[in-house]
Write a structure and sequence with these properties.
This protein is an all-alpha fold and 240 residues long. The chain has one domain (40-237): Penicillin binding protein transpeptidase fold (Orthogonal Bundle), CATH 1.10.3810. 59% of the residues lie in helices and 2% in strands. It has eleven helices and two strands. It has helices at 2-31, 41-48, 65-75, 87-99, 110-119, 126-142, 145-155, 165-173, 182-190, 205-221, 225-231; strands spanning 54-55, 162-163. It has a two-stranded parallel ribbon. It is elongated. It starts with a helix and ends in a 9-residue tail after the last helix.
């Protein structure tokens, strides 16, 4: 009898906790559509582990057109067209990882990276990946592409302990993110696959070599109407 009562109490509290967490995460998704996340788990771990924490969130209009174009060219060229998941790249990555399990190859879109960095933690567990898929779907549905790109440019790691385009721009080029040129933006974007190893300052061989590829892809993608629909508010600066 007592055991049954105890189990019922556990079940009741489990339901209450589940309901609370459901509404809390939904509130956070809505809240962060307009308000920048105060701190992420990744940023907190960076600070605690001794890497430091440099960040300075800036609004959409204070981010260079070039920076917006460069991260799309570098990280997710289908960003305007997919629903948060690049299924073709995911299939390729799965096939590659099956052949070479010791050299994991990712296929995360900008939307997936935002979901992971804002709401979750780093790692490759099934639980984390499942939650990432959920949050990716929700921010695509609620935020839209411009907000996702804006948050990405503010929270993503762009160097050891450096988070967001404003902190990266100040650290590497001593200027605000609004003033970044095409070459400077491409340089920062080139480090994104692994910003701790592929350094901008000092300039690593990888970043120096990849920068030209990113610049070329920026030229190729720039006239795409879907991309322009997202980033065209600062067209006057694009030729710098």
């Amino acid at each position: 009898m007592k055991a049954n009562i105890f189990l019922r109490k556990i079940w009741i509290w489990t339901k209450r906790i589940f309901i609370f967490l459901f509404f809390f995460q939904f509130f956070c998704i809505l809240f962060f559509k307009w308000v920048d996340p105060p701190i992420t788990i990744t940023q907190l771990v960076s600070w605690v582990s001794g890497d430091g924490l440099k960040r300075d969130y800036v609004g959409w209009k204070k981010i260079s057109y070039n920076a917006k174009l460069s991260v799309i060219a570098s990280e997710d060229q289908l960003f305007p067209d997919h629903n948060g998941f690049d299924w073709k790249s995911i299939k390729k990555a799965m096939a590659y990882n099956k052949r070479k399990p010791n050299r994991i190859h990712g296929a995360s879109t900008i939307s997936q990276q935002v979901a992971k960095n804002v709401f979750l933690w780093q790692g490759r567990t099934r639980l984390r990946k499942g939650l990432e898929a959920y949050f990716t779907f929700m921010i695509e549905l609620i935020w839209g592409k411009k907000r996702i790109l804006e948050v990405y440019l503010n929270v993503i790691e762009m160097g050891r302990g450096i988070y967001g385009i404003e902190a990266a721009s100040q650290s590497y080029f001593n200027k605000p993110a609004a003033s970044l040129t095409r070459a400077e933006s491409a340089t920062i974007a080139s480090c994104l696959p692994n910003p701790k190893n592929y350094t901008v300052k000092p300039l690593s061989n990888y970043v120096a070599g990849r920068r030209q590829t990113v610049l070329q892809q920026m030229n190729n993608l720039e006239d795409d109407p879907d991309i322009q629909n997202i980033i065209s508010e600062q067209v006057a600066r694009k030729k710098k």
